[in-house]
Inverse folding.
């Protein structure tokens, strides 16, 4: 694959300009400007992030804004990729993160737009220091008068970003004193917070409206590493609130690439959720005084699905990206219910099903997803060499879920399970693993000591899937059937 030139209407270099903070009705509004070349010359695009509280001018706040500025640029840089990035002088942690996000985080976009991968990341550290400008608050007596005091880290509970799906729901349930946070929340996130009986802090991230016009005019468009951006938003919010931790719900399954090109280059839809990205982000966030980490990194999606179902959270989650569509409204975004047809819905149903009844899955997804012949190929694709470009887990855990369900009488007759179980068995056999291997926990020692036991306590519930009465009864029946033939 060769790299085409960017559209003649949109070109680099892509420049980072100085951010600005002002306050409106007691809330901080952070402006993040970028410059590229448009059809009429230089074009400045400015993102706005509105926090739920004020933001004091401090070294920690400036560090958090800087990181957010660097990460959020991917949403606009995609219009001119690949092009030089004119950035302020970077420290090693920032440089490592930039190279990762602007290459691996954008590889799906490049691959789907016939741009060669890996992407070259040309960092030109000539933008100057770009000091954050804190606009002076209004004079005393004016309606928008605000007094903001810096909050020391750890003075308030940890922040838990919630997306409305199973992973963040489990983290929120495991940490009942955590404060829930959503970026541009929709009904699914508000519903989850309501069901958990917790308030939801709302941050509003507004892309420059001209970005949509550029895309409509032919600028390169596609997937960006949004988890890295929302993480930076969450860390900035934590600084403003005085939270010392931002706790994510990202599983180990995110490490597996969606595909590997013929040249041997990995392309991962979930790169910014990978353990490599977690290390890079955690390191760069150290400058803010906030510890950012994932509580669920030792777990597979199959284990998380079992825990979510067993803890009664499944009816309250929506793990479907179509719900969050903003530019192209669809039925899922209008109703805030899972569409029941995308790869993420099918995968999530597979992860929840072993600890759920067919009736509950059908109620959640508007029908029996695993009892439809038109879903055979879609489920088979989950363990293919080229997985769907969606938030789906490891190939082997999709196969493991089918095998596990085939051993449960309540699921064994559903067409997807009945027809694909032998193929799924072969996938696991070729790899030399069993479905039980996909339920085992990884190293818990990487987690902060005070949270390890909360995660460890999930192990008996998850392990019961492999040895519970449903599976044991089905296995015994199968063995008797074989001996009687």
């Amino acid at each position: 694959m060769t790299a085409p030139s960017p559209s003649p209407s949109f070109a680099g270099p892509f420049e980072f300009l100085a951010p600005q903070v002002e306050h409106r009705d007691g809330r901080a509004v952070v402006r993040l400007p970028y410059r590229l070349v448009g059809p009429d010359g230089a074009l400045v695009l400015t993102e706005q992030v509105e926090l739920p509280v004020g933001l004091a001018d401090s070294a920690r706040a400036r560090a958090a804004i800087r990181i957010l500025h660097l990460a959020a640029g991917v949403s606009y840089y995609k219009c001119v990729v690949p092009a030089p990035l004119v950035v302020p002088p970077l420290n090693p942690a920032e440089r490592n993160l930039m190279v990762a996000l602007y290459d691996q985080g954008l590889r799906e976009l490049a691959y789907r737009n016939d741009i060669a991968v890996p992407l070259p990341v040309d960092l030109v550290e000539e933008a100057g220091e770009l000091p954050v400008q804190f606009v002076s608050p209004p004079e005393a007596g004016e309606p928008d008068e605000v007094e903001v005091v810096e909050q020391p880290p750890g003075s308030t509970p940890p922040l838990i970003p919630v997306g409305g799906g199973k992973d963040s729901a489990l983290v929120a349930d495991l940490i009942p004193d955590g404060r829930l946070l959503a970026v541009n929340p929709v009904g699914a996130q508000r519903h989850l917070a309501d069901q958990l009986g917790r308030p939801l802090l709302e941050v509003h991230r507004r892309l420059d409206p001209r970005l949509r016009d550029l895309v409509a005019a032919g600028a390169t468009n596609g997937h960006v590493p949004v988890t890295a951006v929302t993480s930076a938003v969450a860390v900035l919010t934590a600084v403003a609130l005085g939270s010392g931790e931002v706790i994510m719900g990202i599983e180990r399954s995110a490490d597996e690439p969606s595909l590997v090109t013929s040249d041997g280059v990995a392309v991962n839809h979930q790169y910014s959720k990978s353990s490599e990205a977690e290390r890079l982000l955690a390191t760069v966030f150290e400058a803010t005084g906030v510890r950012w980490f994932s509580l669920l990194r030792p777990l597979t999606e199959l284990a998380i699905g079992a825990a979510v179902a067993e803890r009664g959270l499944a009816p309250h989650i929506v793990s479907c990206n179509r719900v969050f569509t903003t530019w192209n409204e669809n039925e899922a975004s209008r109703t805030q219910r899972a569409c029941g047809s995308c790869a993420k819905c099918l995968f999530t149903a597979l992860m929840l099903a072993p600890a759920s009844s067919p009736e509950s899955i059908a109620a959640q997804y508007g029908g029996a997803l695993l009892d439809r012949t038109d879903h055979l190929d879609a489920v088979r694709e989950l363990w293919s060499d080229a997985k769907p470009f969606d938030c789906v887990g490891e190939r082997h855990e999709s196969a493991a879920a089918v095998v596990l369900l085939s051993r449960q009488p309540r699921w064994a007759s559903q067409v997807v399970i009945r027809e694909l179980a032998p193929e799924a068995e072969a996938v696991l056999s070729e790899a030399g693993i069993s479905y039980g291997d996909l339920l085992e926990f990884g190293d818990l020692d990487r987690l902060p000591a005070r949270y390890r036991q909360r995660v460890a306590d999930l192990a008996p519930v998850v392990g019961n899937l492999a040895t519970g009465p449903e599976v044991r009864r089905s296995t015994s029946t199968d063995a008797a059937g074989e001996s009687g033939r």
Confidence is low (pLDDT under 50) at residues 1-8, 472-485. Residues 92 and 284 are 9 Å apart (CA to CA). Residues 415-431 form the longest helix (17 residues). The longest strand covers residues 27-38.
